[in-house]
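--- STAGE predict ---
source: upstream dedup step, 1 unique chain passed
mode: sequence only
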Amino acid sequence: MPNSAAAAFLGTKPLQPEVAKTYEVGARWSSRNLHAEVTAFNLHFDNQIEQIAGTQPPLFQNIGETRHQGVETAIDYEFGEDSVLRGLAVWAEAHSTTMPPL
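--- STAGE serialize ---
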């Protein structure tokens, strides 16, 4: 049975529970003026749920198995009590392992 009347009308399949296994490792370093951190992550979803674009009310569907991985970094440098320079960078990649690429 669909999860809502709108889903039933459009013929979408009932949602299955989304399950994720996540792994994360990181490090932080601080000195008097400099603070830095880096984190790497890896996520593996089964039955990931995604909103169907352009639907009102919003409808959702399971898109299958997906993997996400990436690295996040941040750095702060304090020039003085009221002056801080901050920067961050992120690299992330995600793809479906059950659906063919577009």
